[in-house]
Amino acid sequence: MSPVNLLPGAISEILASVAETGVLTLADRYGLMAAALDESLDEEDRSSLNRLLRAVLKGRVRVVEQLSIAA
User: Fold this and answer.
1) Is residue 31 included in any domain, yes or no?
2) 26-37 and 43-57 helices cross at what angle (nearest 10)?
3) In this structure, what DSSP letter does residue 23 have?
4) 51 inside domain
5) Whole-angstrom Cα distance, residue 71 to residue 58?
6) Residue numbers of the domain that contains 37
7) Is it the case that residue 3 has pLDDT exceeding 80?
8) CB neighbours of 48 closer than 8 A, spacing ≥ 6?
9) Could you give the CA distance from residue 49 to residue 53 in angstroms, rounded to a whole number?
10) CA distances from 12 to 2, 22, 51 (A)
11) How many CB atoms lie within 10 A of CB 52?
């Protein structure tokens, strides 16, 4: 299996989008899955990921099956 390389700032972009819309899309989830599997992820990004997952569990962020949210 080939390694997954995240784009610089990808996690920040996902977090900003979710904070603005309150929605976690399918594309966001794929990006987060890649980030979670990235062993070189720094502690700040890993903490941000954990906060987002807690927000989903508490119902503050809605998970949708759409690939993206039209602006």
Assistant:
1) yes
2) 140
3) E
4) yes
5) 25
6) 10-63
7) no
8) 11, 12, 15
9) 6
10) 24, 15, 13
11) 20
Mean pLDDT of 15-38: 91
What is the number of domains present in the chain?
A: 1
pTM: 0.79
DSSP state of 22: S
Residue 15 lies in a domain: yes
Q: Of all residues in the chain, what percent carry a pLDDT higher than 70? A: 86
* Nearest to 19, CA basis, from 27, 28, 8: 28
> Which pLDDT belongs to residue 36?
82
Please list the residues that pair with 24 across neighbouring strands.
Answer: 63
Identify the pLDDT of residue 35.
Answer: 82
With bands split at pLDDT 50, 70 and 90, how would you rate the model's confidence at 55? very high
Three-state secondary-structure class, residue 40: coil
